[in-house]
């Protein structure tokens, strides 16, 4: 990190120098009086300075009414007076003890923060905003463990967006020469109810917690991606063009109860096939009359590995939501659980494609494999009919796990389970379509 990033003003530099000298003198007293404090200064500055003052620097307002204030060495206030604003920054990072507050005229206001320097944006402190915040940095964006992001909505991207497209509300992000840059989250990111969080780049990794209750979470890997927060399912996140070594990994928690979660990755070719690796928790439970939806899309040449939890249940009331999983090859691995059960009826789970491979809104997998220790469920938990489960592979479907679409214990019929492919193996599979107080379902 450069001096201009850490030591932005002469006052900050003087404060930093005085603090270093005081600390050096204390160290010298402990290690021996013959060691001069001045001898420690270069080492201390080298070790400590990179973490000193990491607040955003070098702002240049490109559009809108935006002002920046620095009330202290560790805090910054950005005030946006217009509904849309654009600021170019030499660097945009927040140290662990630092805080950036963005005050916007409404929850619908949008501020684009574009980094034109060469440093990765490292968010380790607090970022707060009442509206929508875009952070675009081709060099990379990292939300570190311990950081706290509370915003109306957030878009973090290594793909660029033009001023004209942004101001027109056309959120199309393109690679623009950046290669292999990554968006990584190990922090806690919280959007306001009904808000959205989007993480976009060639590679995206989440090991933290992302929450957007009643809203949307979009994670996309490609070289050209369009966001439409008013859209449903894959229309919300559209990967227009592929990228080499595309990768999405989730070992953390994505939660959008009453909303939608879409993860989509598209690779450049078979030799650099994309990977969607879901080992964490993806949760979009139903809230009142709003069903959740989860889409995990590994692309036409990619591998989709599911080893964690996809939860679109309605445990208290209502029917279960929807879960769609696809890719060129799909693996539902040991310990995986896909659950769209609901108190008043099961929902829908489609893995590898739709019924008989004829769905128009879900691409078909070439091959599907399901571990004996994996489970897919669309049960009626209290009353109502079991849901609908499809396990499909165009060339082959090897389904060895547990599939359940039971009718409710207080009434209701069993649901529908389909396992199909040109080659089909279901040895040892456990299929549950019973109904204690109704008619059995169909496999």
Structure description:
By secondary structure, this protein is mainly β. Helix content is 10%, strand content 41%. The chain is built from four helices and 39 strands. The chain has a 22-stranded mixed β-sheet that branches. The chain has a 14-stranded mixed β-sheet with strand order 2-3-5-8-11-15-18-23-26-29-32-35-37-39, with no helix packed on it. A hairpin with a 2-residue loop joins β2 and β3. The longest helix has 22 residues, at 10-31. It is elongated.
Given the helix and strand composition, which structural class is it? mainly beta
Helix content: under 10%
Mean pLDDT: 88
How many helix segments?
4
* Low-pLDDT runs: 1-14, 30-53
Whole-number radius of gyration? 25 Å
Reported for the largest beta sheet, the result is:
22 strands, mixed
Q: What is the β-strand count?
A: 39
Q: What amount of the residues lies in strands?
A: 35-45%
Q: Which oligomerization state do the chains in this entry correspond to? A: single chain
Give the N-to-C terminal Cα separation: 60 Å
Note the overall shape: elongated
